[in-house]
Each structure stands twice: as C-alpha cells, then as structure tokens.
Amino acid sequence: MIVIVKNGASREALKELTDRIEGQGLKIHMSQGESTTIMGLIGDVSRVDIDLLRSNSIVEAVRRISEPFKKANRKFHPADTVVEIPARDGAVKLGGGEFCLIAGPCSVESEEQILSIARSVKAAGAHLLRGGAFKPRTSPYAFQGLGTDGLQLLLKAKAETGLPIVTEIMSVDKLEFFSDVDVIQVGARNMQNFELLKELGKCQKPILLKRGLSSTIEEWLMSAEYILASGNPNVILCERGIRTFEHFTRNTLDISAIPVAKELSHLPIIVDPSHSAGYARFVAPLSMAAAAAGADGLIIEVHNDPTAALCDGAQCIKPDAFGELTGRLSGLLSVMGGKR
Amino acid sequence: MIVIVKNGASREALKELTDRIEGQGLKIHMSQGESTTIMGLIGDVSRVDIDLLRSNSIVEAVRRISEPFKKANRKFHPADTVVEIPARDGAVKLGGGEFCLIAGPCSVESEEQILSIARSVKAAGAHLLRGGAFKPRTSPYAFQGLGTDGLQLLLKAKAETGLPIVTEIMSVDKLEFFSDVDVIQVGARNMQNFELLKELGKCQKPILLKRGLSSTIEEWLMSAEYILASGNPNVILCERGIRTFEHFTRNTLDISAIPVAKELSHLPIIVDPSHSAGYARFVAPLSMAAAAAGADGLIIEVHNDPTAALCDGAQCIKPDAFGELTGRLSGLLSVMGGKR
Amino acid sequence: MIVIVKNGASREALKELTDRIEGQGLKIHMSQGESTTIMGLIGDVSRVDIDLLRSNSIVEAVRRISEPFKKANRKFHPADTVVEIPARDGAVKLGGGEFCLIAGPCSVESEEQILSIARSVKAAGAHLLRGGAFKPRTSPYAFQGLGTDGLQLLLKAKAETGLPIVTEIMSVDKLEFFSDVDVIQVGARNMQNFELLKELGKCQKPILLKRGLSSTIEEWLMSAEYILASGNPNVILCERGIRTFEHFTRNTLDISAIPVAKELSHLPIIVDPSHSAGYARFVAPLSMAAAAAGADGLIIEVHNDPTAALCDGAQCIKPDAFGELTGRLSGLLSVMGGKR
Amino acid sequence: MIVIVKNGASREALKELTDRIEGQGLKIHMSQGESTTIMGLIGDVSRVDIDLLRSNSIVEAVRRISEPFKKANRKFHPADTVVEIPARDGAVKLGGGEFCLIAGPCSVESEEQILSIARSVKAAGAHLLRGGAFKPRTSPYAFQGLGTDGLQLLLKAKAETGLPIVTEIMSVDKLEFFSDVDVIQVGARNMQNFELLKELGKCQKPILLKRGLSSTIEEWLMSAEYILASGNPNVILCERGIRTFEHFTRNTLDISAIPVAKELSHLPIIVDPSHSAGYARFVAPLSMAAAAAGADGLIIEVHNDPTAALCDGAQCIKPDAFGELTGRLSGLLSVMGGKR
C-alpha cells in the first residue's frame, strides 16, 4: 500500500501519521522526493482501513498495490481448489479440470415435478440437482417457495436418483434444516449478507456463492474471503450476470469474469446462463461461451413445463433441450483439450 | 397489466392462457385488433408473476400499467405518512412537513466518544442520534463494530441526552437486543434481505430503510412493501447514493429520488449525504440540495476526531461544521415555505 | 404501440388526441374498458415520437410493442446479410456462416511496423488488416495517430499483402481520404455522431459500427438504421465491451449481444476482444467465447512489440500468440458445425 | 505518477524502462524497498500514456497522483473563470457568483413559437435564450430540427428581445452558420467528438459543454481540456443527468458533480434539470437543488404548448411555471449569501 503525503505537511503531523501506521504492526518505507513524500507500507495491509488513512488531513492519496483478499488469492495458493461433493455414485469434483453440470427447476413445486425433472437431467448427464425451496422474490406477493417441505422433496429426488442437491439458504436461522443438503447456495442478493457468510464459514459444506447483481469481482472475492476466513475452504464461485443498461437480456453475463477469477483466485468458478440471459433461447449460446472461456461448470434451469413454472419460467429450458446442449458441450470440451 | 398476444396464436392456446389468468381471480378485457390481440388484466395484478406470463409461448409482451407496490403506494394512501418517534422531550416527527436531523458517528467506539458526540449534535439541533454497533464491512478483516456493547453505549447516550437512537441491524437473530432502540436501520446491502424485512414487519418500531447500492426506486419501494405487508406501517426511506461510474464521490446521490418517491409513495424520505459523498467537504452542499429538493430530513455522520474514526472517517464532519450546517439549513428551510 | 389513457379524460381531450395521432397517418384500435381506455396504434409507428405522446396530459403511459428499427430488423429481412469485401485473392465474406478474422495494430506507427505486422497476421490466417490512422484519445496530449500519412502506409500494406484494410473515420470532412479504404470503422465514441452516420449512409462501402460504451443494443441498431436508411446496406456490427463497475477488465464484453443481435437483426456481428478485455492475457478466452456464442468474426489487436506501441499496448497480442489463437479457433469452429 | 515495478525485474529491463521514461523529458525519483521498487515520475506527466507503461512486462501497476487535465485544473488556475456573453442590455456573466438562467424550447419550430417563448422567458427573468436548430435524435425517422432556418428564427428572437442565444452544433462542417450564435452547445452525445472539440477550440465563442450520458467527471474535464488546449478559454460545463438503472426519471441528475467540478476546475458549471428529469413535474425540485448545491446557473426547457412540442415535450415546463420557479430561486439564492 502506498500513501502519498501532501506537500507542506508539518513534521509533527507526519510523525503522528507514521506512529499510527507503525502502531498497527506495519513497517514504512519512506521515500522523500523533491515535492512529494511517498510511504510504502510493508506487512499485512489487508487489515488496514483505507478510508481511515484517506481522511488524514496530510494524506493526498492512498493506493493499494496488492489485492485485499488473502485466502482466496491465487498468489498465496497457486493450485486450483477442487471441491469434492460426496455422492452415491462417486464424488463429484468441481474445479481442477473437471466440467460439472448442475441442472433442475428454479423452484421445487411438487414431488412429481422434482422427481421427473431429476430423472431427466440425470439421464442427460447432470452431476448435481438444483431446486429452490426458499426463494428470494422482489415482491412480497410472489410465490416464496415451499420452504422446508421443498427441502424434503429435494431429498426424495436425491434418494431416488443419487444426484447430490444444491439449494439456496436465505437466513441463518434456517441453517439447521440444511444438514442433508450437499451444496448450499448463497444468492446474489445475499452476497454481502455478512452474518450469513460468517455462519456458513463455520461448516465444511461446499458453498456456491453467487455474484451480486452489481458487485465487482473484488467484492465477490471479499465475500468468499468471509467464508474462507471463518474456516470453510469449500467455496464455488458462480457468475450469474450483472446489471447493465441492456434490456434484451435479464442481466448481462460477464464472460470475462471467468478468466479474471481464474487468475486472481484458486477457487472453481461456474456460470448460471439462465439468470444471465433471462430467456430460454439464449441459454445454449451462453453455455457454449462459458465453456469456451474456461468455466468449471454450469448451473442451468430445466423445467418439464416452463409455462407452468411458479417462478422464472421464461428462462427455463426443457429436458430435451438440456440433453441436446450437453451433447454440444461435450463436443466443444473435447477440442478445448489441455488449453482450458 | 396488458398482455400482447402473438399473431397466429391458436384458439386452444388462447383459451388455456385466459383460463390460467382467470384462475388467479382476474378479469380480462379482450381487445381483438386486425393483427394484434391485447388483453387488459383487471383486478389485483400485484400478485401476478410477470415472468410466468412472458414465458407463455403465445405471449409477445407483457406491460405493467400500475406499480407493483400497494401499501407503499400514494394512490391508495394519499396523505403523507408521519412516523412518530417517542422521546423524553416530546415525540420526534418524521414526514408531513417537519425536517428531521439525525446525526452521530459511523460506529460507536467508546463511551467517551459517543457521549461527547451525542452532546455536541444535540446542542447543534439534532433530533436523533445515529451510531453503528453492528457494521457491515466489505472485508472480514475490517472493524466489525462493538456489537451488543455498542448498543449499551448508545442507550447510555440516549439516557443522558434524551435523543432517541437509530442503529443498524444485520440479522434476524440479533433482533432481541434491539428492544430499546428507537429506530432500526436496514443497510443498503440488506435492502433485499427479505427474511429480515419480514421479521421487522412484525414489530411496530420505525424502520429506516436504506436504498440498495444499485437498486431502482421500484425495488426499494417493494422492499418497503415487505415491511408494510407484514404489518408495520412505520417505514422511513433513506436515499444514500447509488453506484455509478463516477469516482470522485463514493456514491452518486440520486437527488431526483426525493420528488419521485414523494410522488409514488406516502412514506417519508430522508437523505444520507455522508455515504453519498464519501468526503466530508461535499456533505454541506449535498445536504442543502436535499433540503431544497424536498427531503424530510438528513442523516449525517459527525465525529469529534474523524482521522481517528474506526470506520468511514473520510466522510465524517466535525461537530462545529455540523452546527454551521444546521444554521444554513434553517435559513434555506425558512424560504422554502409551504412549497416543500 | 399502445397508449393507455388516464381515467376520467374528457371527451374533448380524447378527440384532440385521436385527431393528432390520425393526422400522422396512423389508425387507432380503441378498446374501452371499465376503468381504462387503451388505444392500439396501427401503421408505421417508427416515426411516432413517444415522448410527445407521453407529455399529453390525458396519457397515462405509452408502450411500444415493436422495435423502432426497420431496415435493420430481421422481421422485415429474415435472411442473414452477407457483407462482401472485394480483395485481390477473392472477396472476403462477413456474415452468413463465414468466420472472419481482422487483425493488426491499434495505430499505424511506421512503414516497417505496419508491413511487418500485416505479413505476420496474413500468415496466421487473418482476412483483413486493421490499423488506426485517426485515433480518438481521451486526452488532447496523447498520440492522435499519423492521419493521412497513416492511411498511405495502410494502403502500402494492402498493396503488398493483398489484405483489405479497416480503419476508423472521426469526422465527415476526412471522408475524401477514405476512397481506397475497404471497410470504414465508426468508433464507440462516435456511435451517435448522427451527422457522420448519415454521410456514411450515402456511400456503399462496408461500415464497421462499434457499439457505444454505454449504449443499449436498441440504440446501436438505431445507429445502424441511420446508415441503412441513408442508402448503404453494408453494415457490420461490432461488440467491443460496455462500461460496467468492473475494473479488472477495461470494459465488459457483452457476450449475450451476439445471440440477441442475431435474433433482432440480419446484420453480421463481430467481436473486439482486445478493447473488451484491455489486457492481452484475456484476449484468447474472450475470442473463444465469442466464436462459441456464434459471432461472425473477430477484430484483434496484434503488435510485434506491444511494450513499444504508441497506444493500447497493454491489450495487444504478439503475432505468434495470434497464430496460436487462430489454430484453437479453427478447432472450436470445426465442432460448432451447422449449429452456429 | 507512480510506477510500481514487479519483484525480480532484471537490471537490463529496468534500465530500458527508465531510459524510455527519461526520453520523454521526465525525471525519476527511485525508491528501492526490500521487496518493491517504486518510481515517482516528475515533470509534465499529462503527456504520459498510462496504458503504454502498464503494458511493460516489468511493471506491476501505475498510479496517477495528479489529474490528467491541466488548463481546466483549478490547481493551476485558482480563480473562477467568468465567461462573458455580450448582450444588448449589458454582458451576461456566467461564473464567479452570478446566477444565470437560460430558457427556451427544445427545438425551434416556427417564428411564432420561438418569438412568443423568447418574450415569455425574458419577462420571467431569463438571461439567455436556448433553442435547438440541429437536433441529435436516436431515430433517423424523428424530427431532426429546422437546421439553418431554425438558426435564422433564433436570430430574429435575439434581435427582438435582446437575449443572446444558445444552440447546439452537431458537426464541424456547419460551423460557418454559427457566426452570430452567442453560445455554442456541444451535446452529450458529442462530448467525445474530439474533432469537433478541436475546431471549437479555435474560436473564442463560449462553448457550453454537456456531460456525456455515461461519462465520468474526469472524462468531461478532459473534453473541456481539448477546447482549452486549442486556444478557447470560454468553456461552460453543463451537467444534464447521467444514465443509471433508474427509470422513473429519464436520467439521473448527478448533483454532486457541482461541488466536485467546482473543486477540480475553475470553469463555471450549470445544470440542465429538464433532460435530467425527463418530466416537467420534477424540473422545479431539481432546479432548487442545483441552486442550493452551488451551480452557476440553469438551462431549462420552456414551451408554450408542451403537448404539441416536436421533441421532448414531456420535460418542458410552461412559461408561467418558469416564472414561478424563478421567483422561488430568487428566494433561495438570497439566503445562500456568500456561502455559495
């Protein structure tokens, strides 16, 4: 971290500032130019409060050199993290070269619905089953999910098909019901629900962390850091589209987030083309693009009767379209080779 | 709500669609043009899932005419809501023509700090005392607030000065500690923490609801609707700046949100110039602008020693600057007259 | 276009409004509901000024059903437009299933530089040579390009290699110098320089139209419409990344723009991964993603000595990296088959 | 400017880099830390190409300390610029404490229209008359303005009322027709039409430079710098709302831009509440806010018959509403005193 001191700062003010900084256990590399004094802070600057430094009356500017995330940082953990999800038919691996397909309905609606979709997506090659039991909805009057009943239905589908399940948590006080869930999803709106992140950091279950609607990649990795710093190393990043001015798609898939996150972090990253696009007909091209850009997997909304879906029907594809897509993805992945 | 049907839709598909809509208790006003069929849905459309309708294969487009919020809507509640906050020296009123000043530090740091600031801001004309005990921080390594100890210190300051207190809640499981808090704040990052909103809707305490960093006014009012629909009518809106591409300010104060929210809703709206600006020197002009645009009040960060503040020091003003500002605000409000 | 009339509009005001609309050559399909009157406007609504309608005191809302672009619209022109660029070794085709590679430096800097790069990219499979002679720079103090001298050097490179050339125009008064240029580029900052678009519509040269930094796809197609409406059908769309809050990339490639533009319009669309990414190391994954999403081609910055480039050196790749990339793209395109 | 060198850079690479920098006439203040080498560049860094530096293989990061604009920078020109616009009844001053009101229709439509509006706004206290003759419209099918005929009508209105006129230019080749125009406006879409800016820098007429729809304040000041650097010191900044995700207003007025621009630059800054709001009913509160925040003036759309306006009718206010607003503004300005 570099602190640029204003011209004409008094000796006393400078002394006070350096004392304050050294009091936090940091060393200062001082560089006195003709007109500018520059301090290079050396040590664990991830704990330094930049706003605090900036507010000092003799400070002109503060510039961070290194990223503020540590445990999520590839610099300190060069090897890819591979998250293993135990399953009846052998553990599913996420990261490290495997390509993982997660599929299922937006919401669990009934036993028949979830079982039928689970069977279809398994047959088409899915490795995990997704389905929402607790649903974050903009309107208090919209369908809010089946709650714990929905979780029970997901577990039935898991029991029958052997597919591990991924489902979203919305508040700490529901955590007790997630003991048999295989991957806990944190939705975009809760990406900075720090109390929830801290609690999830205390368990060892894989956490699928969606990127916030308008969050930067740095903020996203800082939220991953909350989970990692609390003790849980099993974090899966999920890019699901960001808010932009474009309205022909529900959100804008930030395809660049894949190579960027891969460079900055060792955590696996998957893509949600369904929420990114908002419309079923764009799911296939975005899925292909995500695979070509190096994603570790996809989470896709599949519904047997999209027009009757209780939420987000517009972006669900049917099981046969999912099957066709997995075929095309296999072709693409086969030519990507070791270059991914 | 208007549903535009695709050209060439079959009689059966149209029948299925109208049955589905009428099954939700709505009436349909059908308008058959030469090339377009338009359905006007009549009834309580706030419960209609637009995405669901859009996903129907014969639907070209769906357009909402009325707003999806109901209890927060001025159309159904023309008079200004006035939130009353009981206080030793007489209730503080927010909305309906009064101008309310909330001031205090970003975080409660110590008894001496909060007492001293509370005395200063009271002397300068503040009606309520703000101060954070639970702090949402982007980094897990940054100061997270004093927690319940901080709440105790706030209550001491209230006991001494008589100022009612405003402080932020971050998760449902801490609600029990807020019984003596006068106004509970929901921060920008939790604006769509729907589980929290539902719980806060079950009490009758005034809720200060900050707008999310990238939320639209409609989404903000939908979050207010969550609280209102759960039974609590005491919601105060707080505009605190939105994320834009501009970097000379921390956020961009959406000054237009004041007249827009006043038109759409009966709820009082205040402005947080400190988080909007991010720098102390811009707090005064933004405060003046907010008052001139018709805001019902301001929530301002005041610290006796900004450079030593444990968070957001850069945007805190000192007690004397706050005093000078309140004087200028009085002048401005005096000429605004009944026109506000 | 649908006009929703306010409740309680007087008979006279309604008459005045319908007269005004019919005076523009449109028919009105009137639909009188219990509480709402809806007018469906039939005819060429692309000339209707929506803002004007909205400002009418009895109008509640105006909703467009169809897109405001006509000549660029796939509905009225279902077949893909294929832009043909004459070349010594046979015309280069853009659109309709061909994949076109455009490569070259950001700026033309010297004869040696442009000739050497032209030879390299041709050897690696490029179909067209790009190179800037007139450069739009944020700072008046930055290198502004070699101007007409740069154009001459490009023509030399074309003469030697046979590669047709693509270069940017910045103002109408320079058009006379572009007579031997094969494809004229309109940069992102000039996407809504309507006077320039009108002039370019008067020639028949292919126009490569970059999307504006914060433009919607609709605005982009409206700018294409300016060129088409002036008589020039040879427009190539170029997605080059949009401005978002993300800072690890220079811009954010809107990968969804490819399938969206393909659906809305018949015009070919290519991608500029260099400006999207801003960093050379992200050019390859973005290029692969663009091809997988169905783009008709790529325009890539290639420089023999990026660190010495006079502009945008950070995002240039070297000729050998370009060669490796074209090999990987061939593999990917081979498995995409007819599905693109 | 600070250049942070990567760990382990070779002596030769470092030598090559320093030679390159010194070759541009800059001095280097070298600061060799244990693990980091930092170079402080001293001299006229406004000409340094940051991207070029960043692309150097041994450079970790480049951080600018000072702003890239020079002539527009208050640091080098502390006193407020006052732009004087000659007028029959005495020069109008913009900046330096005066408050200037510019009013008139979006477009000049007819002699009767512009004369009648000119008389009204003059009576209500306007100092300048605005009116568009060349109109930038998103659609090629929308009304494009009366062109040179419109300019003639504006001059008639000027001749009768004595109000100097402000009107927009859209391309260099029309400049010859602007010889009797008093203030030339550059619209938001042309803010980075650098060729136009350079030409306008060669005359001495006041230039009203609107901020681009998604431009940062720095980019805006860089565009002002283009005009200043070409020799014309008479630049007036105009904040007209930026694009955000909010849709209840046409754009979002960045009210903070006023104090920020005042701090960074000596140029006068006015506000366009009409384009910011997009709706007539929000023009008054935004105007009051702009004055309270310290703006040097306002440019407001006034039309005698907004529902018949040929463009942007929704945001025009009527002459009597303008008169009422000027009265309220006077009251507000009277209490602002020397504090503005």
Q: What are the SSEs and their pairings?
A:
4 copies of one chain form a homotetramer.
Chain A: E1 2-5, H1 11-22, E2 27-32, E3 37-42, H2 50-54, E4 59-63, E5 83-85, E6 92-94, E7 100-104, H3 111-123, E8 128-130, H4 148-161, E9 165-169, E10 183-186, H5 194-200, E11 207-210, H6 217-229, E12 235-239, H7 257-264, E13 269-271, H8 273-277, H9 283-292, E14 297-301, H10 319-336
Parallel strand pairs in A: 7-8, 7-14, 8-9, 9-10, 10-11, 11-12, 12-13
Antiparallel strand pairs in A: 1-3, 1-4, 2-3, 5-6
Helix pairs in contact in A: 3-4, 3-10, 5-6, 9-10
Output the number of helix runs of chain A.
10
Task: Report the biggest beta sheet of chain A as strand number plus sense, adding barrel if it closes.
Answer: 8 strands, parallel
- In which order are the strands of the major sheet of chain A placed? 13-12-11-10-9-8-7-14
Structural class, from secondary structure content of chain A? alpha/beta
Helix-strand sequence of chain A: EHEEHEEEEHEHEEHEHEHEHHEH
Distance between the termini of chain A: 34 Å
Give the overall shape of chain A, derived from the CA principal axes. elongated
Low-pLDDT residue spans of chain A:
none
Helical fraction of chain A equals 25-40%
Q: How many beta-strand segments of chain A?
A: 14
**Biggest contact:** A-B, 50 and 50 residues
Give the rounded overall mean pLDDT of chain A: 92
Which percent band covers the strand fraction of chain A? 15-25%
Radius of gyration of chain A: 23 Å
Quaternary organization: homotetramer
